[in-house]
Amino acid sequence: MKRFVILLLTAVLALTMPLSALAAGQIEVTEDISVSDDYDWTRFKGQNVAINVYNWGEYISNGSDDSVDVVAAFEKLTGIKVNYTTFATNEELYARLKSGGANYDVVIPSDYAIARMIHEGMLEELDFDNIPNLKNISESFLDPIYDPGGKYSVPYTWGTVGVIYNTQMVDEEDLGSWDLLWNEKYLGEILMFSNPRDAFAIALKRFGYSMNPTREEELRDATDSLKDQKLLVQAYVMDEIFDKMLGGEAAIAPYYAGDAITMMADNPDLSYFVPEEGTNRFVDAAVIPVGAKNKEAAEMFINFLLEPEVGAANAEYIGYSSPNDAALELMDPEVTGDPIAYPPDEVIEKTEFFIELSPEMSLAMDKMWTEVLSSDEAYSKWLIPIMMLVAVAASVSINLLRSWRKRRDREYADRPVKKG
Known about the structure:
Layout: H1 2-16, E1 26-28, E2 34-36, E3 50-56, H2 70-78, E4 81-87, H3 90-99, E5 106-107, H4 111-119, E6 154-166, E7 190-193, H5 196-206, H6 216-230, E8 233-237, H7 241-246, E9 252-256, H8 257-266, E10 270-273, E11 279-286, H9 295-305, H10 308-318, H11 325-328, H12 333-336, H13 345-348, E12 351-352, H14 359-374, H15 377-414
Parallel strand pairs: 3-4, 3-5, 7-8, 11-12
Antiparallel strand pairs: 1-2, 6-9, 6-10, 6-11
C-alpha cells in the first residue's frame, strides 16, 4: 500500500509540473525542444516584456512542414513576446537601423555588415554572462575577422555561395565556372543577386581579383562585366529566386548553399556547384543594436538559439550550416555529411570572407552598382524580347528550309529514270 501511494504521488507530481524536467539538467519546453535547467529562463515572466527580432526571410524553424516553432517555444518558456519581422538584404537592414526609424533588440546580419556596424558604433557589446551557451559554438568561430575578440556577435549560421541550375535546361559542359552567368546561350534564363556586395564579388572573382577590392580599377572591371551581363539577366532577385527556380521560370542563379539545398529538395531537376575560381564563405550572426530597449531579454533569446536542440532544429529546417558543435551532434549524419552544407577542405581553401571595405571603396561600389542597374534600361527592356523573336524566327526558318530540302530530295528520288 505504501509503495502504491508513493507511485501515485509521483505520477500526480509529474502531471502537474509545468515545463517538467525530462532528465537531470533538462527542461521540456515542447515535445521536440528541451533546454538546460541551469539558466533562469523565467525571470521575465509576468512582466509584459517584448523583444523585436529582425532576421532574414525563411531563416528560422517556424512550425511549418512539421518543423519546430522556435519563436513559439521561446515565448512559452520565458513569457517574453517576440515581434518577428524579416529583411531581404544586408543593405536593407543597415539602412533601416541607420535611419533610426525602427527599434530592434536582436538582428542577424552577415559578417561584413556586422564589421561596418561595429566600426560605426551601431552595436552593443554583449554580456556573455547572459549567454552561457556560447560554449556550444565551435572554437573556430569565436574570434572572427569581422568582430575581433567576438565582443559584439554570436554566430548563427554559415555557408558558401554557388550556382544553382536546372539540369533540364543547362548543358553539363557549361558547368564549373562563374562564366556560366555570362553565357549568351542562356539569354533571359539567368537570375542575379539584387545586392551589390554579392554581385560584385562574383564579377571580381571572374577576373581573379579578391572579393574585397582595394582599387577602383578592380571595381571598374567588375562594373563593365556586370553591365555586359545585364543584357542576359531575366531579373535581379533575392527571395524571389525560390518561386522562379522551383517553377522552372529561370535556368541559372547564384545563391546561398543552404537555400540551394532547400530548393533541390523541392525540385529534383535542380542541382548546385561551387565555381572553380572560388567563392564567398559567410557567417550570419546575432547582434544587439545600440539603444535596444530590452538588452537582457535579447541576450536570453540569443542564448535560446544556442541550445543544442534549438540549433539543430534551425539548421535542419533552413538548410544552412551550423557553427554549433552541440547541435551538430544531434543532427542526422546525412545532413552533416552533405558536401554542399559542409564542403570539403579543397572547396573551403578557395573561399574568402567578406571584410569591411574602406569608406571610399564602399561609396564607389554603391555608385557603380547604381550605374549597372541604370545602364541601357530602355535598350535592355526591348533587346531580350527582340532577340528571342529573332531566335524563334531563325529556328522556324531553319526548320522550314530543312523540310523543303527533304521534300525536294524525296521528289527527286521518285522521278522515273530515263533510259538512254
